[in-house]
Amino acid sequence: MLRMECEPNVSKKKIFASLLFVPGFYLMVLFTTGLIVFVGSGLIFIIHYFVGKFLGELGFAYFGLILLDALPFFGMIFGVVSCFIAVISMFFKNKQFEPAILINPHDHPKLRDLISELSGKMDSQMPDAIILHVKSKFFVSEGKINVFNGIAKGRILAISYPLLHVLTVNELRAIIAHELSHFTGRDLVFKRLVSPVYKGANNYLDYITSLFNHNGRRRPIFISIPMILPKVLMEYYLRIFHKYNMKISQEMEYRADYIASKMCGNEIFKEALSKLISHGNVFNRLIDEQMTEKIVHGFQFENYFSYYREHIETYNMQIEESLGKALSDHVEEYASHPTLNNRIVNLPSVDTIYSNNEKALELINSFDYLEVSMTKHYNYYLNDNAIHF
Question: Of 89, 189, 321, 383, which has the fewest Cβ atoms less than 10 A away?
């Protein structure tokens, strides 16, 4: 696979095709609603005709006939209501929560200046809110996100706090450049347009699937028959829709990788990307396992991030294995990101531009206080969500 020396473009044809799925969803809902009514009505007619024909002379049969007719009628009504609820749900946003803390950029001038400088060079506005994430998670978002100490609003930049000890300032700059490029590429606008379809389709499937099984018990067959074909059609529709979007998402990631490499150098971004995946996978697993184990035995970490830094050498083999696995992963058709190997191979050849190799954690003031606070909040979070392993 050759390196990309020209900025990769997100296919306009794919975007157009994906956006067609948005109005297409409404048509699919109308079609499946009609199908539910048609199948349900047909089933009622068949039951009424055959049961009435063979058992109609028996007095008690009429009451049983009414009960049999009621089963597909109930399924038909439930299916129509599910369609209605699915469409309505698309217009209501779920509250998003992230285990993170909202920081004031003015309290961390070095980090603020780095982000401000990058934003200026990339013709992007400075993020309205910056949050430090408890886990290995970098992303950008628009809207509102509930965090431990408040609500982040507007254009939001999430920075993985635990990886600040692993990354250099150069590498952090490259990752932030990657994330900011999602703003400049209007990637979030596209995602905001298509995400309601995911929500509506999944809600629709959840509702009608519950008609087949409830608490592990199968419903009477006559109730679920009107749902069978609509369920299959909506699952197929959602699968094709998701396939298109994941291809677009991968192209967006290639574009963001390209811009980050151009801004900071391909070797810097390659190293940052490798650390993000290898260290991140290990940390995300260990923090939940180790903190939950403490909670189960009636104890809590006071500062888990400090504990992890002190013991990081004992996890080197796990980190190396995580990197090896990521580099050997095969392309998945429905993955939102390309494989690590494909991303590295496709980076443009650009010399390292910056030379600041100090730990990115040095950009944060009073990080001991932040770590204790984040550990405390995450302890409560794990308790509330009752995570078990």
Answer: 189
Is residue 157 classed as helix, strand or coil in its secondary structure?
strand
SS3 category, 210: coil
Q: By C-alpha distance, which of 306, 308, 291, 319 is closest to 371? A: 306
How is 176-216 classified by DSSP, letter by letter? HHHHHHHHHTTHHHHHHHHHHHHHHHHHHHHHHHTTTEETT
- What gap in Å lies between CA 168 and CA 146, rounded to an integer? 28
Q: Which residues pair with 152 in a beta bridge?
A: 145
Which pair of structure tokens corresponds to residue 164? Answer: 């600040």
Q: For strand 129-133 and strand 100-103, is the pairing parallel, antiparallel, or unpaired?
A: antiparallel
Cα 293 versus chain centre, distance: 27
pTM: 0.86
**Gyration radius of the chain's alpha carbons:** 26
The pLDDT-based confidence of 389 (bands split at 50, 70, 90) is very low
Task: Provide the 8-state DSSP code for 314.
Answer: G
Q: pLDDT per residue over 234-260, tens digit each?
A: 899 989 888 888 989 999 999 999 999
Read off the tokens for 51: 């049961």
Angle at the Cα of 239 (from 85 to 99), degrees rounded to 5? 70
The two tokens of residue 108 are 């961390």
CA 49, 54, 55, 56 torsion: positive or negative? positive
Phi, psi of 6 (to 5 degrees): -115, 145
DSSP state of 310: H
